[in-house]
Amino acid sequence: QPAPHLIEEIRGAKTQAQEREVIQKECAHIRASFRDGDPLHRHRQLAKLLYVHMLGYPAHFGQMECLKLIASPRFTDKRVGYLGAMLLLDERQDAHLLITNSIKNDLSQGIQAVQGLALCTLSTVGSAEMCWDLATEVEKLLLQPGSYVRKKAVLTAVHMIRKVPELSNIFLPPCAQLLHERHHGILLGTITLITELCERSPAALKHFRKVVPQLVQILRTLVMTGYSTEHSISGVSDPFLQVQILRLLRILGRNHEESSETMNDLLAQVATNTDTSRNAGNAVLFETVLTIMDTRSAAGLSSPTLARYVALTSLLRMVQSDHSAVQRHRPTVVECLREPDASLSRRALELSLALVNSSNVRAMTQELQSFLESCPPDLRADCASGILLAAERFAPTKRWHIDTILRVLTTAGTHVRDDAVANLTQLIGGAQELHAYSVRRLYSALAEDISQQPLVQVAAWCIGEYGDLLLEGSCEETEPLQVKEEEVLALLEKVLQSHMSLPATRGYALTALMKLSTRLRGDNKLLMKSPGSTQRDTPIFHLLRAAILEKMPLVERGGTQDEEAKESKEAQLSEAALVSTEPPVRRPEAPRGRGLGRASTPSPAPSALSPRPPTCYLPHTLSCFSLHTPASVPNLRVFEREGLQLNLSFVRPPETPALLLITVTAVNTSGADVTHFVCQAAVPKSCQLQLQAPSGDTVPAQGGLPVTQLLRIFNPNKAPLRLKLRLTYHHLGQSVQEIFEVNNLPAETWQ
């Protein structure tokens, strides 16, 4: 190493002139030391000279000193000598030929460290003459027992083939044996060596076509099980080795049908399973496409299918940054929805949903609904959720919005998200001019099919609220429909008795029957005359006329901050607020009258921008109890990747200081839904953790309704709190798993 004082003097120079002065003095001192021939300090002086050379100053006078140090028997001298040779010598100078004998002797010594130095120098400055002279020694080292020397020998052989292609025959036999290596460096170097041999020698190309099955097996092992975890990058198993094998397969399969047939299945597997959310996966996929295009691939790997998949993947990644440019390809993307290939149609669906905006929502929704009617079962949930989200964001009119949701519920009601019922009931309730239209449409749909549970629930709710409009005169916006009171009651009873009806669905139907007793002309006698009911007059029928069965008031989905503050102030004056420890529930219970509980309108879905735990209010008679609002703890964002965000909000109930309630909120701002979302947590042993059920397992795209989950942590010792989170989900056609630790929780959460 250079003397510390030299480095300090050079770094301490304030101007370039001062630096040159220091360098000139030191070079003069180094020259004098070389002339004196001090063997003990020669390597130190050369190390100083190499440092000067790296700074850009002339150091050619040290070339002969490098040769002397290489010939020295001391390892410290050889190490600096070989380093100097690699830096100061090249093929343009005859001096480099003088180290051939020294390299040959060192390769034959059997000392691995010395052999490694010699091989590195040979692969760096070795000329064609040196390669001819030392090829035999390198070929012997390819089969040495030590992996350290074999790896460097393989790389040296690559350099020799590039310099002298005529040496190919020497290295053919060892390569077949080296393919059985498990050492990553040796295997990667061997694949590179075989690639160089095949590109430069037709005989080598013919020879190595026999090892195509072995190469296919190596690549299959990488794709399926992972060759070595320490060489994986961003979840892609050893992408460098995969790329090198794919390049070699492309050379071996070109214009050779048998080799191409052997690798076809594997290429399809790599193209389908590679994670393209990272650059490493994109590199592997790019090489796979080049290999497929350059070999005699099977029909399943023909260029149109794979080219479309790659194009859709590229457009999906581009849509966030340049939406208008991708819009030009919308007709082609829609055509890909009908492709028989499952992976291609899924990718086309994701891109189609990302392309929906206010200007094309009608046309795109019509195409997506047509696809929903015939799409595979595994795509129905994603397609239905995407249509509902697009309609919610870009609906041109309320009637169009209602019609769109009804068609989705009719076509794929069992595959819609949990909040579809609440959203539609709220939409209908807020459109007073469409009450008659909605109840007639829903009644007709219910009469045709009672198997779609979300549709049945919305229809029962709407009939219970607006059943009187169903029996009135015809609606201008629908076809004439004559309905009798007995037919309405019979249809609701059919829902009650159906084995397909869920308990929640029966609750909707029962509530509708109760409300119809105050809506229809026959009054409460209709309910008693309905099939299966009794003729006894009980006090309950006197209550049916009360205000508990009036039409529900409209519940706004969101309000301004001033309105929320005003409502909060009024609530504090009349009621005491308690923070619920239950997680938000997306699908509401069956509607109830106001006298039987809270407001009967299904509760609106939580806001995606400001999620908060629901608040329940106790009657004024309980206001004598002193309940204090918990101190606010700042929210914390702990995860963000490709549009998926994970935020934590904290509440510590004052009556239980050792209890911490954490609401985990997942929001998705990307263009594709996040499905199969699972969040798991772990805490230190001094704490107790209870995970409540999440509100769903699908995080809708483009800032839709978030998924929330409640964590109850009991920390009696008030120990510093840490969280370890594990997220698993599917996004953009790929399976993702993230494990991370949250160490920056606010001190208010545990102190």
TrEMBL record:
Q: How does it sit in the membrane?
A: Peripheral membrane protein
Residues in GAE domain copies: 631-746
Q: Where is the composition biased (Low complexity)?
A: 598-610
Cite the entry's keywords alphabetically. Cytoplasmic vesicle, Golgi apparatus, Membrane, Protein transport, Transport
Ranges for the region named Disordered are 555-612
Would the keyword NADP turn up in this protein's UniProt record? no
- State a single Pfam family of this protein: Adaptin_N
One cellular component term (GO) for this entry is: AP-1 adaptor complex
**Which InterPro entries does the record match to this protein?**
Adaptor_Complx_Large_Subunit, AP1_complex_gsu, ARM-like, ARM-type_fold, Clathrin/coatomer_adapt-like_N, Clathrin_a/b/g-adaptin_app_Ig, Clathrin_app_Ig-like_sf, GAE_dom
Cell compartment(s), UniProt: Cytoplasmic vesicle membrane; Endomembrane system; Golgi apparatus
* Any GO BP annotation: intracellular protein transport
Looking up PANTHER family in the UniProt record yields: ADAPTIN, ALPHA/GAMMA/EPSILON (PTHR22780)
Q: Which family does it belong to?
A: Belongs to the adaptor complexes large subunit family.
Protein name in UniProt:
AP-1 complex subunit gamma
